[in-house]
Amino acid sequence: MSTATPHDIPTYMAALGAQARAAATVMARASTRAKNAALLALARRLREAGEPLQAANAKDIAAAELAGLAAPMVDRLRLTLKVVATVAEGCEQLAAMPDPIGEITGVKRRPTGISVGQMRVPLGVFGMIYESRPNVTIEAASLAIKSGNACILRGGSEAIHSNLALWQLVQAALVEAGLPAEAVQLVETTDRAAVGRLIAMPEYVDVIIPRGGKGLIERISAEARVPVIKHLDGNCHTYIDAEVDIEQALIVTDNAKTQKYSPCNATESLLVHARSAAAFLPKIGAIFAAKGVEMRCCPAAKSMLSDVPGAQLADATESDWFEEYLAPIISVKVVSGLDEAIAHINRYGSHHTDAILTTNHPNAMRFLREVDSSSVMVNASTRFADGFEYGLGAEIGISTDKFHARGPVGLEGLTSMKWVVLGQGEVRS
Amino acid sequence: MSTATPHDIPTYMAALGAQARAAATVMARASTRAKNAALLALARRLREAGEPLQAANAKDIAAAELAGLAAPMVDRLRLTLKVVATVAEGCEQLAAMPDPIGEITGVKRRPTGISVGQMRVPLGVFGMIYESRPNVTIEAASLAIKSGNACILRGGSEAIHSNLALWQLVQAALVEAGLPAEAVQLVETTDRAAVGRLIAMPEYVDVIIPRGGKGLIERISAEARVPVIKHLDGNCHTYIDAEVDIEQALIVTDNAKTQKYSPCNATESLLVHARSAAAFLPKIGAIFAAKGVEMRCCPAAKSMLSDVPGAQLADATESDWFEEYLAPIISVKVVSGLDEAIAHINRYGSHHTDAILTTNHPNAMRFLREVDSSSVMVNASTRFADGFEYGLGAEIGISTDKFHARGPVGLEGLTSMKWVVLGQGEVRS
Predict the structure, then answer these.
(1) What is the CATH number of domain A9-229+409-421?
(2) Where in the cell is it found (chains A, B) (predicted)?
């Protein structure tokens, strides 16, 4: 099933690359039926995996505990029955989705007589580099299968036994459906040099998708010789306009900040129009105070919040406006109007997700158009910026770039459009 | 109007970059009316330019002749009244096209109540690096204006006086329409270090579009620190299937090869199914022989062509199958069937444009799906692979990559899609 454990990293990675490229050709022309059969077989094998999978996972858990990893890190490694059931269900959901590949759209007849349109095709081979959670192995494999791509997976060393066990299930499911086992390959060495090779083989790998900390992603982006679908930070804003439903704004702002503190789409900065500040700030301040959310304020905001019982207030510094806290902290600024709000977001934000809460239609439209972020929202919580919430069915990652894919990336981000010309013997004059 | 001639290249380029970034913000929210007014003003100013433009162009021509440039190279520099009229017309055609910016598509209501769609927005700032022909200055500037981007142009040193004169017209047209002059900037130095900076300022430039020889483009791609929309070689194939209208195939193949020899979409390699070879090869061979097209053949093709009077035949070597001749030379191979044809094209081709000539529908569909090229065609000349022929209205370049844009790239290649969420106070649970 798997290649021999590698000694010579460049040779080993080139072999993985060549096998992936060959498998990609087969996957690109695979039938929807075969791809869905592989996904359903994978779901079944995951549910039936039982003891061998649990034993492999236990090895990683034991090693992590021995190494003294923090409890939350150890928990992220756990392939509980619930986690396994969830990823199996994800495979079934993908099988139920329409096949994006082969669809021809936008066909137009040209004056010359030819018809010109575009066909959606796989990108080819993607490399995925991720940390800790072994369920990403199944998410990436299933997305590769459905999108007709091949992939090379490089998981974290702390999950290597779990990843190897999951990969065996993936390859068995591929073979069961008559598809090449090499469509999904796992890098079997934890040698870091393998990552260096994976991101520098344009002849074998078309795109790299890293998932992990900002440091990892910045390093990969700087060194990669192929395109990277990357997600850096999410310094998201919620802006309260002059004309606004205050009660609704309180509910949405509270959700955007406090529903969860760690996701990249949580609001980190609150901007409030001067005309709404007196009505809105003390009320949201009381909600934040009750939940222990520290507020780092501009002078105007601080003075309006000073009477809120139990409020943890601090003076915002310049660096606070750039900060992604991922914690119960929020920066708060009173602004003179929409222009200042938009300029502030475009200057200090990370172009991830920003929302305006307003009842003024022209302001809503200006905000949508002029805020240069991958998701722009009107009267909704920034927490909605997510592939599943957007109906993409599955999310391979989130892009903070503008090139190729932007924001939550689903199956389509793993495809490209080629031109199709249908003629009846036309020639160019 | 223009910045002082630069001495310190990094400082100068950073200043251009910062000005472009600021102008891009204004261009992104510019009205369709203002952008079209700038395009129409530019067309008018081009037509009225008269003597000063001709004098600037004459300087370049004189310098080129003095330097002993070959006559075709000197001709490409010439801003004849016809060339000027053509680029002016191009500006008017762009003004008449729909504005791609701001369009919201694919809006769907989600179970949570939010509506999710995508809005087309400009990429921001593009850098264009090109050689000799000064009309590219106007093409790039007009595409930047219509797509709401800013651009930094770096033309060839041999066209510097013409480019400076054209750029003055562009900036005057922008100002006349109330748009920032810095939306289009020209690098005023011919120092090569300026190119090195232009391609390595991700903070100011979002994408680089080179136009020129393969050497230039490979160098830029290797060194760029931002995405490059690049066009490398075009080794295009025409494949004659077993079931085919021979008369039509002769007309299309002749056009694909001989209508012009130098374009990237000219056919360079002819593949013929063994069952069609006897009927087709001697006839196309006679056409090629009459036009002086040398045929580099596999043994089977050579023997079938050996009786054609005046045919220039040679044995194809392995390197011939990879070759982009851009000349009256074609490689010819007899293949055993569609599988061999597809495998040959995917192995030796450059993934640019390939055509099947066939009356068999399943074969046509397999060719479209399985040939991994930016344009795939049925019963049409490969020479149709072109932004204007495809109805894009304008062509900023051709991409031989799969990422972002593939094949002929029009205005849409200079845009990206951001997510738009319209809510009524929804929160995430």
Answers:
(1) 3.40.605.10
(2) Cytoplasm
